[in-house]
Amino acid sequence: MSPGIGGKELQWSGLPRPSQLRHLVSPYNLDLLTTPAAIVFPQNVTQVAAAVKCAVDAGIKVQAKSGGHNYGNFGSSTGEISVNLENLQDFSMDHTTWTAKFGPGNSLGQVTELMYNNGGRQAPHGETFDVGQGVEVVLANSSIVRASKSENEDLIFAVRGAGSSVGIVTDFTIRTVPVPPSTVDYTYVWTKQSVASQVKIFQSWQKLLAGGTLPREMSYGLTVTANGMVLSGVYFGSEDEFAALNLTSHFATPPQVSETKAYSSFLEVSKALDAAVSAAGIASPSHFYAKSLVFTEKTLIPEATAHSFFSYLANTKNGTDLYALNFNGLGGAVGDFSPSEAAYPHRDTLYFMFSFARTSGNLTDTTIRFLDGLSEVLTSGNPKTYYGQYSGNVDPRETNEKAQTGYYGQNLDRLQRIKEAVDLNDVSTTSRVGGQQGIGEDGVGWGIQDGE
């Protein structure tokens, strides 16, 4: 790779010294260390295209990396070119259409602050932003194209859920709305409870979510750890409106801790939530294993299964120094779209279950079996039913076939046809659409490289 590609010097590293490897690769999952063939740090889209062409000419596969929060360290795979997009941090706001355009080198926190400071805007989203307004993509043939619902429709379909399998996205355009004038951050904690009490709390949480009475203007999640259960979220409205919901009245066992805090600044609450994630200890590089499951109204967890689940937690060796099971309520506008509109198929999701297990050193079979067994218990209540998975939380130990089916369901056939059309030789080997073992998607800071 030569300097000067695209009019500016193209930074790159062939990783000549092992002492530099960890710093340059910056692995997120310390249990799955990798050694890319080289890492490039393009300054613009032209240099991204040049890096792809260089890799193709050399017969080497390519993976894009931004934030690097990928559970399998995809974006820095061994023997492949890692295209680090951290320098692509442009941002603009169209004050007529109120669409925001930005590069993948931005983090979620950066984009949130930039939108707030450019007209008091925000982008409502579930696990990640919807990039349906349009994207710029570098394809395997090194061409630079735009995709939207009116241009390269197949490509925008693939990007919205499996983007990194079809190319490298170099900018995103998203719809924004005004920030709410007030928000309420709430947390309710049940410290260590009996299995029977935990079952009742969980069933009450699930019943309230499935009942359809919760407003869209709120997030609603339940976290289970070895120390207890935490109901938390944010309500986008006033304190009086939130109080009228009377959430705790739906639980027979009152929480031991109840905390609510009102914010008049949307940016302030966003930063507080970021700080809470950091303090939880699950966002920093570590040795860990993680899995996901999608639950719908057809796969609600029966009471007997919930009892088996909490009994499993109480009696099974886990080998961790921390585990967290996050049940994240979804619904809302995500379900307004047809499953065939984007690669992300799980439009009927009621909630996700994200399981995370961290160890102080290398993972052992004990911890891996603990999370695998946990998923088996949770799906045992509906054994013959399809359970989806979330591609933003990849399980690199899973078989390719199971991962493809779990991530993309009914959209897999169309995705594979698109993959063949734009990347027949699997150059962008960064998603489990392509048919290669060990491929996945980079988190791109906050999951938008494979945005919904």
TrEMBL record:
Residues 435-452 have a biased composition (Gly residues). Residues 32-211 form the FAD-binding PCMH-type domain. Keywords: FAD, Flavoprotein, Oxidoreductase. Pfam families: BBE, FAD_binding_4. Residues 429-452 are annotated as: Disordered. InterPro entries: BBE (IPR012951), FAD-bd_PCMH (IPR016166), FAD-bd_PCMH-like_sf (IPR036318), FAD-bd_PCMH_sub2 (IPR016169), FAD-linked_Oxidoreductase (IPR050416), Oxid_FAD_bind_N (IPR006094). Belongs to the oxygen-dependent FAD-linked oxidoreductase family. This is FAD-binding PCMH-type domain-containing protein.
